[in-house]
Amino acid sequence: MSLLTVSNLTKRYPRGGKSIAAVDDVSFHIDPGETLALAGPSGSGKSTIARLVLRLIEPDAGRIEFEDNDFLALSGASLRARRARLQTVFQDPLAAFNPRATVARVLDDPLRIHGIASRSERPRRIAALLERVGLAAELASRAIHEISGGQRQRVAIARAIATKPSLIVLDEAVSALDVSVRGQILHLLLDLQRQERIAYLFISHDLGVVRAVAHRVILLDAGRIAESGDARAVIDAPRSAIGKALLAAAPRLHRTRP
Amino acid sequence: MSRFRRFLRTPEAVAGAIILAALIAMALSASLLFPGDPQAIAGPALLPPFQDWSLPLGTDRLGRDVLAELFHGARTSLAVGLAAAAAALVVGSVVGTLAGFADGLVDEVLMRITEAFQTVPSFLLALAFVSVVGPSLGIVVIAIALGTWTGPARVARAEVLSIRERDYVASARAVGMHPLAIAFREVLPNALPPVLAMSSVIVAAAILTEAALSFLGLGDPNRVTWGGMIAEGRAVLRTAPFLSIVPGIALVLTVLGVYLAGEGVVETTAVRRGLS
């Protein structure tokens, strides 16, 4: 049984009098411990799908089943409780945190809200979470704006794994990081997946990164699925027009062999 | 520290701060320097200022010490001004945050109520409220706050509308935080700076409104107020103009001081935020 099943998901936005489908009849599933990548150009509906799956916005049509439950039927307290299993890491590691927050407060929130640790136990749990994502426990007392972008994204990952989720939506989670940091963060994500069997919905426009981390990929174009399949197979030899265009646009280092 | 130094480099802010400090000193020392009832008769009636050094600012129609009344009046002005402004800011930012964050029907209802209050001139509202409920310090504070909370509410709502679209609000929702916790822990603290920037104007307006209410005889009758003193002096405006002029000057200086100091604080914090 798959972890997340999305069927016929549709989201329309009004634009200039008529409605435009940002996401048009999209269906896919994710298995436990699997990474599914959503790739496509800007405006192809990647982030809209992420927000729909996270229930940050509501779809116009379609079904979302998560852990064998109708995820769209949940509301209020039951939805908030279920959110513990479905976490997220956003693109911009600075915008994703309250500018007044400290690292400790950011990590304290999920532990407190979902009753994972008692008040006296939380500092220890926060230190353990920081350690798990490769940060020093002393960082807890620092303000979010005092730490570096890479550290911030590690804190975001720590926040996402605090509630022991089965699925994390990574919305361009490594796109804003510089290349060396990006490699480390991807490594951390893969490591977490191996150990905790977390599934990822990995949203990216970078086919190179997708090929490296995803098991399967879905290529989106104008809100529709253009192509899907095994990540390496699709990216090495795309059949759809958008897949070929994306591959041609990807920057590469040309080396001439001696 | 640098913020404080920048504040000191703005002359009008320093002037405002000095006036404000003097006012606070007056209010705090009133019962030390002038123990007993300031409304008790202290000497001959209508003694002009600078004649008798035990009564430096003279006496009013009933022979009450004008200086003592001035000091005790500072208390009322300051207390009413600060309390009314605080009430207006708290109510305004809570209503504005709820309206901006809740969206839909709650927003519509709250904003129509806000507009209903805004369409009535705030002084008229205060006047009507005090004359119906009866004058006392608490009622005067509520009456003034009733007409001034709408400004902070609208500013807070506008700010919240922009903040609630930010990623960190989405993050808080994804973590499973309760909507009210998001509104008051994540959104409101970040929406406050522009709301607080209005506080100096609100305090100044509240002090003036209190004086105007007292002038019309709707102040707390058991307390000396500057507005009440001006009203008292009005009857003898030709023979003893100082009875109206002295509290009038105090009032002007206070409003000016509050305004200048408040603007100075806003200015220096704005520069700081612009730099960072």
Automatic annotation (TrEMBL), chain A:
The GO terms this record gives for MF are: ATP binding; ATP hydrolysis activity
Domain of life of the organism encoding this protein: Bacteria
Q: List each copy of the ABC transporter domain by range.
A: 4-247
Biological process (GO), any one: transmembrane transport
Checking InterPro entries in the record gives: AAA+_ATPase, ABC_transp_ATP-bind, ABC_transporter-like_ATP-bd, ABC_transporter-like_CS, P-loop_NTPase
Name the keywords, alphabetized.
Answer: ATP-binding, Nucleotide-binding, Transport
Similarity comment text for this entry: Belongs to the ABC transporter superfamily.
Which PANTHER family does this chain map to?
A: D,D-DIPEPTIDE TRANSPORT ATP-BINDING PROTEIN DDPF-RELATED, TRANSPORT ATP-BINDING PROTEIN
Please identify the protein, giving its name as recorded.
Peptide/nickel transport system ATP-binding protein
Q: Which organism is it from?
A: Mesorhizobium qingshengii
TrEMBL record, chain B:
Q: Which GO terms describe its cellular component?
A: plasma membrane
Q: Which GO terms describe its biological process?
A: peptide transport; protein transport; transmembrane transport
> Can you tell me where the transmembrane regions are?
78-102, 123-146, 195-219, 240-262
Question: Which key words are in the record?
Answer: Cell membrane, Membrane, Peptide transport, Protein transport, Transmembrane, Transmembrane helix, Transport
Q: Which PROSITE patterns match?
A: ABC_TM1
Q: What is its main location?
A: membrane
- Membrane topology term: Multi-pass membrane protein
Assigned protein family? Belongs to the binding-protein-dependent transport system permease family.
Q: What is this protein called?
A: Peptide/nickel transport system permease protein
Protein source organism: Mesorhizobium qingshengii
